[in-house]
Amino acid sequence: MNIVVNGQPVTTQAASLSDLLAEHGYGTAKVATAVNGTLAPASMRHEQEIVDGDQIEIVAPMQGG
Amino acid sequence: MKFYDEEISSRFLIGTALYPSPAIMLEAIKASRAEIVTVSLRRESGTEQAGQNFWSFIKDTGAKVLPNTAGCKSVKEAITTAHMAREIFETPWVKLEVIGEDDSLQPDVFGLVEAARILTEDGFQVFPYTTEDLVVAEKLIAAGCEILMPWGAPIGSGRGLNNIYGLRSLRAHFPNIPLIVDAGIGLPSHAVAAMELGYDAVLLNTAVAKAGDPVLMATAFALAIESGLQCYQADPIEKRDMAAPSTPVAGLPFWNQDHA
């Protein structure tokens, strides 16, 4: 299926958000995730299904003012 | 003083962006003696994981983090960013920015008030980046904000306090709400001016990070903010138009009534 991850088109077979993170090499990185503009809590990533057309955001701490 | 339920002693809040290197950032934070640093969220690549290094640097400082929603242009973006920040930084604090105009990065105060209300109801402790507008300030407080962060001037402009009258009015109207000048500060004298108005703290980033010597500039700002605070606490004199001799006149040599 085709989804968008951090603004980039991605083809994936990942069934869940946690599978997607593993597939893209995030490992144990401290990240927060949103699916279609809504927070997908870390505790729910196993249950969070990925479907065609989903817009995923994966973010981490960064410098800010 | 308290920011929400946290006791704070340093009146200097400092940003973590734009430094020449992480090492200089850490030295500048140390020199600033700030207890609170602002941070943000950005898209993370699974292969590079740049955010992980940054986070380990910040944790080492021991500072409290104030995550921002920089770059958000809608209520929904700001709310989702705040939710992600709360999860990742494990704090209810959020520096709420809803930007309404690209050239000035002026807050969209309508969206700001709405987002502040929604986030407060959801348990956040909101630090709203706002203008000096009194009515907006009242609505933010009604929405649940217990702190206000009016701009001095547009972010990164270094112009100082564009509307001293407005900032003074805000202080007078809200004597018991912590007020932090956030953005637009360029020089330590601007920070002194903010503190002399009775502001509780100053938040800045660019003026330190982009200085030729960020560590020295962080020290300069720390001194300035402390100086301005002590000035306000010491109750300065009023301005007057005419001279008033500081040396007692009566009894001076050659003095007589005709001089009086």
Automatic annotation (TrEMBL), chain A:
Pfam families: ThiS (PF02597). SUPFAM superfamilies: MoaD/ThiS. Gene3D superfamilies: 3.10.20.30. InterPro entries: Beta-grasp_dom_sf, Mopterin_synth/thiamin_S_b, Thi_S, ThiS/MoaD-like. It comes from the Bacteria. NCBIfam families: thiS. This is Thiamine biosynthesis protein ThiS. The lineage of its organism: Bacteria, Pseudomonadati, Pseudomonadota, Alphaproteobacteria, Rhodospirillales.
From TrEMBL, chain B:
Pathway: Cofactor biosynthesis; thiamine diphosphate biosynthesis. It is found in: Cytoplasm. Coiled coil: none annotated. It comes from the Bacteria. The active site is at 95 (schiff-base intermediate with dxp). One of its GO terms (cellular component) is cytoplasm. It catalyses: [ThiS sulfur-carrier protein]-C-terminal-Gly-aminoethanethioate + 2-iminoacetate + 1-deoxy-D-xylulose 5-phosphate = [ThiS sulfur-carrier protein]-C-terminal Gly-Gly + 2-[(2R,5Z)-2-carboxy-4-methylthiazol-5(2H)-ylidene]ethyl phosphate + 2 H2O + H(+). One of its GO terms (biological process) is thiamine diphosphate biosynthetic process. Keywords: Cytoplasm, Schiff base, Thiamine biosynthesis, Transferase. Residues 3-248 form the Thiazole synthase ThiG domain. One of its GO terms (molecular function) is thiazole synthase activity. CDD domains: ThiG (cd04728). 1-deoxy-D-xylulose 5-phosphate binds at residues 156, 183-184, 205-206. HAMAP family: ThiG. Belongs to the ThiG family. Homotetramer. Forms heterodimers with either ThiH or ThiS. This is Thiazole synthase. It comes from Kiloniella spongiae. The gene is thiG.
